[in-house]
Specification:
Layout: E1 9-15, H1 17-20, E2 22-23, E3 28-29, H2 36-44, E4 48-54, H3 72-82, E5 88-92, H4 106-122, E6 134-138, H5 152-155, H6 159-164, H7 166-174, E7 180-184, H8 203-218
Parallel strand pairs: 1-4, 1-5, 5-6, 6-7
Antiparallel strand pairs: 2-3
Helix pairs in contact: 2-8, 3-4, 4-7
Amino acid sequence: MTYENITERQVLCFGDSNTYGYDPVRNGRYSPDERYPMVLQSLLGPGWAVAEEGLPGRTAVFDDPITEGMNGLRLINPILMSHAPLDTVTIMLGTNDCKARFACDSYQIAQGIVRLTKKALQTECWRDNAHPDVLVIVPPVITPEYDRLIFREEMGPGCHERCAGIAARLAPMLQGLPGVRFLDANTLPGAVCSPVDGMHMTKEAHRALAQGLYNLLTGSAPAAH
């Protein structure tokens, strides 16, 4: 299939509640001009089209025994195909994989993200079968304070330790995968979680992430490998 009539560069942001734009202050959703995919769209301007695919609770590879439909691995193929043709896919997951009920450490969580990334690479969603471009983002780490805040019971104990180890485990696993780039959001100034719950990004963090993605997508700054 060819797409000569679609000239805008298509970017899809695949993630969980941070991509959805959950606002812990209002227990709702940030407005479109506050969520990082739409801030990115504004920064990129004409010639680009950014799509949001964020689902609160989404994991990279785990079926949630409490809430169905959370397994990103099971759903990424039809989601990517429904947005074809794509030029870039960003994947920012791992926070929900840290839940105590999945009983995984950071190494296993990173393995799941790699498996999901490989499936995205193999999906036939890329413009004119061009080379894939998957940008894997490590989300801002859960802060230790979460353990006494509003999602403590939902997440379970030990989440901040597991989350803090993902970047170091994941980066070397992705090395050498053609078509894959890597961004640790924790390296971006201001990309932090809200003190209200310790795991969802502030409005300032959404802007910081959008700026970091803009830099990578436009070549304003090199991606880590």
